[in-house]
Structure prediction request, 284 residues.
Amino acid sequence: MAHHSIDCELCSGAGGEIVHRTEKFRVVLVDDALYPGFCRVIWNDHIKEMTDLPVPDRSTLMAAVCKVEAVVRAVMRPEKINLASLGNMTPHLHWHVIPRYADDAHFPSPVWADAQRQPAPSALEQRQALLGRLRTAISEQF
Amino acid sequence: MAHHSIDCELCSGAGGEIVHRTEKFRVVLVDDALYPGFCRVIWNDHIKEMTDLPVPDRSTLMAAVCKVEAVVRAVMRPEKINLASLGNMTPHLHWHVIPRYADDAHFPSPVWADAQRQPAPSALEQRQALLGRLRTAISEQF
Prediction:
């Protein structure tokens, strides 16, 4: 049986543009002007922590996160991948998969720290131009 | 064969107080005055990304991260667990396992954002007092 919370934005909304959806989780593309290619893997049920999931579901979710990481690396060619499950504001299990570049707004700080610079529009446009390939590659990967 | 990088602080140093060590990874307690109970799970070899690991090693590492999460939840009783693998400055695979509380320095923001408040010394002391139990519980869990 699915568990949902009436006040949770990841229960009431998709959390981004859905590129792949299974019974248990969905992969969304985040609309973040500074971070083209930022994806989230969101567990469909309203579960708070990784260790609230049965062990097989943890493996299912992390395998999905790793699939998304692999595709983001292949298509977006970032300097580094950042993975995080935080959920302090939205305690509904979701993983951020963020492609990072030496010239991005916060590098080498986390994206939640103060910005270090204004990224060059041309660099952001180049990354935006890859999103069509990223959508296709994610849906093909699953 | 182990892979090491001469300039990497997680190759040359432990990265914290070691509470458990296996051939493949180690669990360390981070000395952070604002975040008692902050742990890291560090892959011993100099590997950059999760998807640079063979699939069985990814499972080994995430199972360890989840074990640490479970123990930190049981002993430290946080409001939320934050998990993250960033590595922009130190591209050597390591997971942050951070117990978060509604009255901590940054809640509900990530710990890398601007501080929201000065935590009460009594709250930090209470959490510091649990570290002995945390060390024991982690080493018993593996």
The beta strands of chain A are 17-21, 25-29, 39-43, 80-85, 94-100.
